[in-house]
Amino acid sequence: MFTNFPFFPEAASEQAGQVDALYFFLVAVTAFFMALVGILVVVFAIKFHRKHADEVGVEIHGSLVLELLWTFIPLGITMVMFVWGAQVFFHMTRPPKGAMDIYIVGKQWMWKAQHMDGAREINELHVPLGVPVKLTMGSEDVIHSFFIPDFRVKADVIPGRYNTLWFTATKPGRYHLFCTQYCGTKHSAMIGWVTVMEPSDYQAWLGGGPVNGSMADNGAKLFQDLACATCHLENGQGRAPSLKGVYGSTVTLTTGQTVTADDAYVRESILNSQAKIVAGYQPIMPTFQGLVSEEQLLQLIAYVKSLGGNQQGATK
Amino acid sequence: MDTTATPTLNYLNNGHGLKSWLLTRDHKRIALLYLWSVTAFFFLGGFFALMIRLELLTPASDLVQPDTYNKLFTMHGIVMVFFFLIPSIPATLGNFLIPIMIGAKDLAFPRINLLSWYIYILGGLFTITAALTGGVDTGWTFYAPYSTTASNSNVILAGLGIFITGFSSILTGLNFIVTVHRMRAPGLTWFRLPLFVWSHYATSLIMILGTPVIAITVLLVAVERGLHLGIFDPALGGDPVLFQHLFWFYSHPAVYIMILPAMGVVSELVQAFARKNIFGYAFVAFSSLAIAIIGFLVWGHHLFVSGQSTYAGLVFSIISMFVAIPSAVKVFNWTATLYKGSVSWDSPMLYAFGFIGLFTIGGLTGLFLATLGMDIHMHDTYFIIAHFHYVMVGGAIFGFLGGLHYWWPKITGRMYPEGWAKFACLNIFIGFNLTFGPQFIVGYLGMPRRYAMYAPEFQVWNVLSTAGATILGIGYLIPMVYFTWSIFKGEIASANPWGARGLEWEIPSPPPTENFLVTPIVTHGTHQYAPSHEVGIV
Ligand code: HEM
Ligand SMILES: [Cu+2]
């Protein structure tokens, strides 16, 4: 009836090996203490089994030395876990410079992916082998969570903000993609596949060129259609700042504070334009809340990004 | 065994008829009211669990539709957590024993004690109404904005049920704290208190400090749902992650509400059945307080994948490691107590052994989840389900059943059939491990929780788990049967059938209404078993 008894998921990303090493360490510690406690309890229970009905135990009130030992030894071991876990975590949460960008939108109950050159797919994600891929993810409705077990990566996908996740796939093949944050009726059907291809195959799969325009091109078109361009003149003479070179730079606000112009900042400037006003400008920009979809927002961000600027500044 | 007849007048036969129970102010009778109600909720929650497991026998959603499945696990979670695990030990054994253990005639506020039972029942009625009139599908965690904007099920009604029940918890906690402070018998200093009382004291602190937060949180969900204020909904300028902070600020400490009382029970069991006082009394007592206090600082370990800042993640990770230490200290102290004891293998002690095993597994697997790089992979998979069932269900239920067996003769004045009790304990232990053990493996494989359908490669572990659940379910039913039998036919119990120490064993079984005819004067700790040549144990 059951052809396989899987014990362990495939390790198909660069991260997977690190997580598995940590896992084996934790399993070893668990097995050791399980055995220690288990054996002591069983041995004591047998060795000191009550011999006659009115027997009582020997009065022993405790031992400070033992208490200190079994406080500080476990503390030391958990500190090893903490530090090791934190190292793996830092690695997992900091995408390397120059990682390939892909945008993901979660929606009840599907995963939509947009590649930079414009290719789009639903419940499928094609990625090249051996290339660090950074996903920037937003949600159109409720909280979802993006999980590829064979890569050991996961991040919540939250409406109103962007979370990122990155991985480098190391084995060609097809891997499950699950939603792990309960999101309603078809939560368990919000499943997809990640296909890892040789980079040349990936290029071929992309179709050798934009199908319906790259993300930035689509963003540029939106920029015109939504009349953003009437204020944000390229030469900086408009009623609004030019967006050239803004992405990733440090922006000074009328309040005197500064912010880094990252994805979240651009998003907020579009949806909630009064929240942060750039020094030297009037709060006249209308809000585009409800006028642009989550995917269009990502295209607009890609466009702003394409206008140049300190790319890394915004990604870190 | 001593078979002297039950004393003629006791709390059970002092007053008859429904009214004498429903209007009672006797903490012992109120404890029994709770015992019946939490048992009813336990089997209701168990019924939902069995449906969940049957659905998961196959990868497809063929037994029930996904919507129904979602409502099943939501009701399972709500009923088990809020109506069984949280009140189980404190409201039944705690209510019955705390006044007796400290030599008092009742709790400080007997009327409030009765009131808290009525509040609990009222909250339960709301929740059951919510279930019967269409159900709730948010999961017991009510995450926004799903609960506030997307779900079209009975969120407000179910939330109200939890809100109301919270008051019952707060009142019970308050009552215990005042009672322990004000009503201890002469000579019963803080460091002579039974560890059961210490653990309930720590639990009560969490109840009164934490419960208001969950009450406010579900209220905010209701307000947001009704009035669209934009507290949690980002479309209205709210913050969905704020909900998670508020929710876990209560719900993480709440797991200690479920487990600390069980630890108190196990401390009593280990001492009584090893005929020894505990190894390191002060360390065990203070570890309860440490767990209660540090437990309030670790909620963020539920948010490692929510995009909270890396540094917040680090802080919550390290504090979570700290909170594991007092638990480890307790396990080592229980183990050390067995050394040179006079260890009997009576059924309550078997539950204590079971508790130590399951709690150790549950606690150690908790460290996986506190370890940052590891939790990313495991979060919201079946590994979590397995972990919290080992801790909360393994821990709380083994503590509850162990305590119920130990004090059953005191409560009812009757013994239960020991052979059956041992058999049931073994049955539950095996069923439990077969149910939840495979879930660790399928969790690491990547099976997400709350899935009505799953990928076929996960099936073998789910079949094992469902088989285990069947054994476990039978295991839970057996004590129901023999306990009921024992009330009518069980052998009459003596005042102290185990030869145990503690004020509760110095009064008749079942206790008289006023507990003590003369207020006892305490001259030493409650578990001093002098050497056998000095004291003859009957
Ligand atoms: C006192 C006993 C139990 C308690 C307190 C308890 C508690 C819980 C809780 C709090 C959840 C999480 C619900 C959620 O994620 O919304 C849960 C889930 C679950 N429980 Fe139990 N449980 C108990 C017994 C059982 C038993 C006996 C079984 C099996 C027969 C079982 C099977 C499950 C399953 C399969 C889930 C996962 C549902 C999901 O995917 O979220 N539980 N339980
Ligand atoms: Cu989802």
Descriptive notes:
The complex is a heterodimer of chains A (316) and B (538). Chain A has 316 residues and is of the alpha+beta class. Chain A is built from seven helices and twelve strands. Chain A has helices at residues 14-47, 64-93, 199-206, 215-225, 263-271, 294-306, 311-315, and strands at 100-107, 110-115, 120-122, 124-128, 132-139, 144-148, 153-157, 163-168, 173-179, 192-197, 250-252, 258-260. The longest helix of chain A is centred in the N-terminal third of the chain and has 34 residues, at 14-47. By secondary structure, chain B is mostly helical. Chain B is built from 15 helices and no strands. Chain B has helices spanning 17-22, 27-55, 66-101, 110-132, 146-150, 155-182, 195-227, 240-274, 281-294, 310-338, 347-370, 372-378, 382-412, 418-445, 459-489. The longest helix of chain B is centred in the first third of the chain and has 36 residues, at 66-101. The termini of chain B are close together. Classes of the chains: A alpha+beta (316), B mainly alpha (538). Chains A and B meet through helix 1, helix 2, strand 7 and strand 9 of A and helix 3, helix 5, helix 8, helix 9 and helix 10 of B. Protoporphyrin IX containing FE is lined by residues 46, 49-50, 52-53, 73-74, 76-77, 80-81, 84-85, 139-140, 385, 389, 392-393, 397, 435, 449-450, 469, 472 of chain B.
Topology:
The complex is a heterodimer of chains A (316) and B (538).
Chain A: H1 14-47, H2 64-93, E1 100-107, E2 110-115, E3 120-122, E4 124-128, E5 132-139, E6 144-148, E7 153-157, E8 163-168, E9 173-179, E10 192-197, H3 199-206, H4 215-225, E11 250-252, E12 258-260, H5 263-271, H6 294-306, H7 311-315
Parallel strand pairs in A: 1-5, 4-10
Antiparallel strand pairs in A: 1-2, 2-3, 5-8, 6-7, 6-9, 9-10, 11-12
Helix pairs in contact in A: 1-2, 4-6, 5-6
Chain B: H1 17-22, H2 27-55, H3 66-101, H4 110-132, H5 146-150, H6 155-182, H7 195-227, H8 240-274, H9 281-294, H10 310-338, H11 347-370, H12 372-378, H13 382-412, H14 418-445, H15 459-489
Helix pairs in contact in B: 2-3, 2-4, 2-15, 3-4, 3-6, 3-7, 3-8, 3-13, 4-6, 6-7, 7-8, 7-9, 8-10, 8-11, 8-13, 9-10, 10-11, 11-13, 11-14, 13-14, 14-15
The complex binds protoporphyrin IX containing FE (HEM) and copper (II) ion.
